[in-house]
Specification:
Layout: E1 22-25, E2 31-34, E3 44-53, E4 59-61, E5 67-71, E6 76-86, E7 91-101, E8 118-120, E9 126-128, H1 143-165, H2 181-214, H3 220-231
Parallel strand pairs: 1-7
Antiparallel strand pairs: 2-5, 3-6, 4-5, 6-7, 8-9
Biased composition (Basic and acidic residues): 161-177
Disulfide bonds: 114-126, 121-139, 133-148
Keywords: Disulfide bond, Glycoprotein, Lipoprotein, Membrane, Phosphoprotein, Receptor, Transmembrane, Transmembrane helix
């Protein structure tokens, strides 16, 4: 009797990512949401955007799969839901909010008149510099948060290189650590003094040796004379 076994490959559910929450300041009234960072172990076949909260008069357009362009936004808070579907029909949803503030309460806003106290967005406008890298997109194109992420990854790389270059020798293979800068000068002076003393001793020994060579040896007669003189 033959048995047939069928092993179905496991298919994980997709993960929907609607992007970061957005804050706009009038007169800026448009923004593009991007959900293309959503993932699946096979493929995502459908992106669906739904307005859950906010003025229904907002204009919504899909320029390309996974994105949603909003325009004619009014003051208030909007909540959009992104639902993604994979090849197996599994679905996942994520929400993103868009807050539109009036010009009177803007702390900088997206303006074409910028100064050194503003962050310059890639699309040409600017926002208050204190609003950059706060986890919320202030620029319509999101360049204020993208700049923060790029700067953080670059700094992190530089820190790793510095740690590698200035790694203490005592942490590697039991090697002895290098002497501190303050101890180098006394050590050098001590070695110099020791060398001078050794040189002086060597010169003194050489002079004594030369004097011993020049000294005339005592004859046997002189020796007998000295010995007899001791008994007189």
């Amino acid at each position: 009797m033959n048995y047939l076994f069928s092993f179905a490959e496991k298919d994980e559910a997709p993960v929907s990512k609607a992007g970061q929450d957005v804050v706009l300041h009038l007169p800026t009234d448009e923004v593009t949401l991007d959900g293309r960072e959503s993932t699946d172990d096979h493929a995502i076949v459908q992106y669906e955007w739904t307005l859950l909260q906010g003025d229904m008069s907002v204009h919504m357009k899909v320029p390309q799969s996974g994105t949603l362009k909003l325009s004619h936004l009014q003051e208030g808070t909007y909540t959009f839901q992104l639902t993604v579907t994979d090849t197996a029909g599994q679905r996942s949803s994520d929400n993103v909010s868009v807050t539109v503030l009036p010009t009177a309460y803007s702390t900088g806003g997206c303006s074409n008149v910028c100064s050194r106290y503003h962050f310059f967005c890639d699309d040409g406008c600017c926002v208050d510099i204190t609003l950059a890298c706060d986890g919320v997109r202030q620029c319509p194109d999101g360049s204020d948060e993208a700049f923060c992420q790029n700067h953080s990854s670059s700094s992190g790389k530089n820190r790793k290189e510095k740690n590698y270059i200035f790694e203490p020798k005592s942490d590697r293979g039991g090697e002895h650590p290098a002497p501190e800068a303050g101890a180098v000068l006394p050590l050098a002076l001590g070695l110099a003094i020791t060398a001078v003393l050794l040189l002086m001793v060597a010169c003194r020994l050489r002079l004594v040796k030369q004097k011993l060579k020049k000294a005339r040896p005592i004859t046997s007669e002189e020796s007998d004379y000295l010995i007899n003189g001791m008994y007189l």
